[in-house]
Amino acid sequence: MKAFVVQEPGRYGIEQWPQPIPGPGQVLVRVGAVGICKSDLEVLDGTRPAAYVRYPVVLGHEWAGTVEAVGDTVREIAVGDRVAVEGHNFCRTCVFCRRGETNLCEHYNEFGFTLPGGYSEFVAVRADLVHPFSPTLSLEEAALCEPASCAGYGVMRSRVRPGDTVVIIGPGTIGLLAAAWFTLYHPLHIILVGRRAHDEGPVKQLGATRLVNLQREDARAVVNSLTDGRGADVVFEAAGHIDAVPLAFDLARRGGTVVLEGIAGGSHRLALDPDLFCLKDLRVEGIFAYTSSVFTTTISLMSSGVLRVGPLITRVLPLEAYAEAFRLLRERTQVSGKVLLKP
Ligand SMILES: [Zn+2]
Ligand SMILES: [Zn+2]
């Protein structure tokens, strides 16, 4: 079958790859659409930490497709089911998995990083990792269930309440999906803060009520003007830039919550006032990926139309156009939404 393979950093392309055969308890999924993600670029460039990648690898951890075949002992999933697929092939037996903290599994194993992923025609996956969804949800939208689960886990941990003022720093995929998630809790304001020009249409459709471009505006002044000088109840950081972390602490009100979900890269060090957290009575939530239970919630909300992620999708390209897709992601000069590939 056709697959996009990264043999080693800097050496990649479409090649013939053995078509997987579903073993007992597995299903074979024909990939319908796969999202491209900044972490895919880390695999291409060799900047992903060694524990989180195994070369050669077929990329793709944000994907959905149609069940083509089922292995022995599979009862719940049938040929023809359209499914979204969890990214983490967690072990189910380690102490973290048994607590339901499947995102923290001791045996990291993820499609598109250490297992062949969705930049290919077919993937064989454990049947308990696939989640059928309604006919009203497209394969393209369902491919976003994985990043939407990352965003949703952070939003749940924020303990946002109706009437809150929410700030999201970083208008990338996770930040925009977080905006869609936050709308389910009816905050008063969802202020999206970034360093680029915004294409307001899709951003506002996803739920942001105010856009701040840091190159032209002072985020603190905007937040203060909307909160009588108190600051935001919830700040959701998804920028993946070292400067975003102190900005997040600064924009939160006393007694507020800061959710940190961006990965800045391990080489940076921050200088922070150590008393900041006590004096502000601040709650800080660090988020790594999502649990299996959050993924289940996310696909059901998307499937029922409660959580709408469609406006995020701006380009759908054939797998062969991967170079164009990577270029769009690397050269993003404005908020451009999500690029999907179809194998
Ligand atoms: Zn991703
Ligand atoms: Zn485990």
Automatic annotation (TrEMBL):
PROSITE patterns in the cross-refs: ADH_ZINC
Cofactor(s) in the UniProt record: Zn(2+)
Xref: SMART domains: PKS_ER
SUPFAM superfamilies, A to Z: GroES-like (SSF50129), NAD(P)-binding Rossmann-fold domains (SSF51735)
Any Pfam family the entry gives: ADH_zinc_N
Keywords: Membrane, Metal-binding, Oxidoreductase, Transmembrane, Transmembrane helix, Zinc
KW Transmembrane helix (keyword) present: yes
Domain (Enoyl reductase (ER)): residue spans on this chain: 10-341
Membership in a protein family: Belongs to the zinc-containing alcohol dehydrogenase family.
Name the UniProt record assigns to this protein: Zinc-binding dehydrogenase
